[in-house]
Amino acid sequence: METLGFADIVGPIMVGPSSSHTAGALRIARMARSLLAAAPARAEFTLYGSFAHTQSGHGTDKALVAGLLGLAPDDLGVRDSFERAHAAGLAFSFACDREAGVEHPNTVDARIVDAEGGVLEVRGVSVGGGAAVVTRIDGIDVNVTGEHTSVVVRQRDETGVLAHIAGCFSDCAVNIATTRMYRTRRGSDAFTVMELDGPVPAEAKAAIERHPAVRDVRIVPADGPAGQPAGGTDA
Fold first, then answer.
1. 3, 48, 100, 172: least surrounded by Cβ within 10 Å?
2. Where in the chain is the domain with CATH 3.30.70.260?
């Protein structure tokens, strides 16, 4: 018999009417923020499927902006995220594509420019119960859930890089729960995504970055559903 957690029955604590369209959308944007080198300055969101049909009706737009600001799903500031973004100098826009075929109905693409001029393109899906998955980063298919602390390493696909990353964590006594490497083709740009059982020591991150094939290292903190009563119903 499958064991159900509290969140499976009543959903997460959140601001908004829908754990899928509000809390899940916010978590996608929070993970995207973690992948930036600096604070977000401009964001363009394209909503697909159910996201495109509900948009402001279920607060998906406000939730996405709130996530980029780093707010939690239960932060009352989600309600006025647009005003907070304007005050912080974050520009944003939304487009809806109701015709494109996507694998999941709650899908969003985000193109984000950070304060240092870096550009990040992310696709995320809200999978229900307030949970979310980043499924694409800069054109490369990935799987980042945010349920555990995740390390996302952008690298050249070269022999020895994965061993180097694993060795850096071993040297710092950090246990690796899962490891996946994603690439478009052999020898091209790639991402290694590792889920860890604990936080990432600064010395481990610095050691990983010293490898010449490593371009950057981003930490996505564990941000799974709260497992507490929901503020609304799922959609």
1. 3
2. 149-219
CATH class of domain segment(s) 10-146:
alpha beta
pLDDT score recorded for residue 21: 52
Taking residue 9's Cβ as centre, other Cβ atoms within 10 Å add up to 11
165-199 pLDDT, tens digit per residue, is 999 999 999 999 999 999 988 889 999 999 999 99
Q: Amino acid identity of 109? A: D
User: Which residues in the chain are classed under CATH 3.30.1330.90?
Assistant: 10-146
What is the distance between the alpha carbons of residues 104 and 124, in angstroms, rounded to a whole number? 10
Strand partners, 131: 128
> Right CATH number for 149-219 from 3.30.70.260, 2.40.50.1000, 3.20.20.150, 3.30.70.100?
3.30.70.260
* 101 vs 8 pLDDT, higher one: 101
- Any long-range contacts for 77-81 (C-beta under 8 Å, 24+ apart)? 78/15, 78/16, 78/22, 78/26, 79/15
pLDDT of residue 194: 97
